[in-house]
Amino acid sequence: MKHLLLTSLFVASSITGAMAQKYFEKQVVFPTNATAAEKIDMASRVVPTKQQLEWQRMELTAFLHFGVNTFTGNEWGNGKEDPSIFNPSDLDCEQWVRTLKNAGFKMAIITAKHHDGFCLWPSKTTKHSVASSKWKDGKGDVVRELRNACKKYGLKFGVYLSPWDRNAECYGDTPAYNRFFIEQLTELLTNYGEVHEVWFDGANGEGPNGKKQEYDWDSVLSTIHRLQPKAVTAIMGDDVRWVGNERGLGRETEWSATVLTPSSLPQAAKNNTALNIDGMKNDLGSREMVAKATEMHWYPSEVDVSIRPGWFYHASQDNQVKSLKNLSDIYFQSAGYNSVLLLNIPPDQRGHIHENDSIRLCEFSAYLKETFSQNYLAKNKAWTGTNGKTYEYAVKKGATVNAFMLQEDITKGQRMEDFLVEALINGKWTYLGEGTTVGYKRLIQFSDCTPERIRVTIRSCRGTANIANAGLYYAKPIADNSEKLKLSDVDVKEWKIANGNNAMQSAIDGNIKTVYRGDGLQALTVDMGKDVSVKGFCYAPAADDNLKGTIYKYEFYVSNDGNSWTKCEASNEFSNIMHNPIPYFVRFGKAYNARYFKLVPTAEINGQQCTSIGEVGILTK
Length: 621
What we know:
Elements: H1 2-20, E1 24-25, E2 27-29, H2 36-43, E3 46-47, H3 50-58, E4 60-64, H4 69-72, H5 93-102, E5 107-113, H6 142-153, E6 156-161, H7 174-190, E7 197-200, H8 217-227, E8 232-235, E9 241-242, E10 257-258, H9 268-275, H10 287-292, E11 295-298, E12 301-306, H11 324-332, E13 339-344, H12 355-372, E14 383-385, E15 390-394, E16 401-408, E17 416-425, E18 428-435, E19 442-449, E20 453-461, E21 465-473, E22 496-497, E23 516-519, E24 524-540, E25 551-559, E26 565-567, E27 584-604, E28 610-613, E29 615-619
Parallel strand pairs: 1-3, 4-5, 4-13, 5-6, 6-7, 7-8, 9-12, 12-13
Antiparallel strand pairs: 2-11, 10-11, 14-21, 15-20, 16-19, 16-21, 17-18, 17-20, 22-24, 23-28, 24-27, 24-29, 25-26, 25-27
């Protein structure tokens, strides 16, 4: 009885102590037996570190995918590339940074090493680097040139270092490769001044020995914290998380104070499995999830997307740069959904940001400046409120508007759960929009109107919501004049299914919105009706959100008679298609004369026995 009493007093004391603490920087571990209400209260007081807050305020950061893939035309290299192929004709990192700076970006992150293992700096760990290239007779250093340019123009600097290395012989030999990787990381973090973001993805394929590497994230993160204590660690780090897709789309309900435990932490697998969550789940912070959780983390989301269909530069995509309308939509659904937008702009083979990309970035910057330069609220004061509180803003007379912004003071936590926005028009309150989470920034779009006042109602919040800022704007409508993506150089009208499964006709009807779905890994066999010089093909996955059946690995064959088949030389995998489900263009590097072709799936993205095809096209150029 005495033991039970002492235990009860200890638990009560732990909860009382935790409740008494005003804020929890980056993490809170809930006391045992904390009630749901107590957990919600503690969750509302999780706040960002200084570095996380500075990162969130940037809103726009840039990715620069550049390396041997720029010269091979691949998205994922295999590590066997000849380093001499890397030879930009006129590398100009200052042109990159000037372009980004003028477009409003606050940081540039360079792919110092991608999955192919080629290093853009003269690393002592490997010969697979710029030191073995023709560029500057092996004496160049892309990382240094970019770092110097960032310093000159006042842009923050970040590095991406792929954990997966398809060139390193020691990859898969866990202790040896971890030493190798940390040595590369140490070079980047000690030889190039201040680094503001270190970006890792979770790529983890097989090494030369057929084994997958077990990464030592504890040592990796401790190395970063020791050498670059002001840097945020992204995706596989514990400061910034991936939003869960590569389409530039954030969640309408986006919690920075989340129940998701960063996967680099030792307790992650246990915690996330118990909650049945990962970074792609929609619910990462509801009251129901908080009640089940054992801890909370300030772990804000980053939305990554490329300005082109691919992540590396391909000349064939020069006319497929995202439209201004598309970029504007992405901004409203990323920075406007409590995330930071990481937009990839891949330099070309000259070592320049291509003119088409530069023009679009200028248009994008000008559009954002025009939209957000004029706040039509007459007065804008910080305010606080609990459930049911309303707050009204006066509007400048005669202003026509269609976008509203709210910002919480996240130094006091993220607390808004549900809010309503109304406008007083001709003496009557009219619905404009509603939202759930706010966090650092939330943008609500609605039809053009000319209100007299704006009213915000807190329908639900955790404790007291702290509104730091608001804005009322007019975003001019944009016509989407982007070119239609051409999936096939050969007219599909005469194509016929040659293996008897006529349901597959929807995969070759020229309409990406019609999808073939079937059980099993099913081959698509097509009679094109005439001889064609086949130089490649396009596979488009389903254009909707149902990615079940998406082909990951494949074999591609051609034939003149439909009986005798030749296997085409290709990479045999649609690299990264799980996270970037867009049309994938495969070029063989030589021509095959054929009337028939056959796409044979050998693996689905999640290892399931099913197939889905949005569209397949043939490339002749």
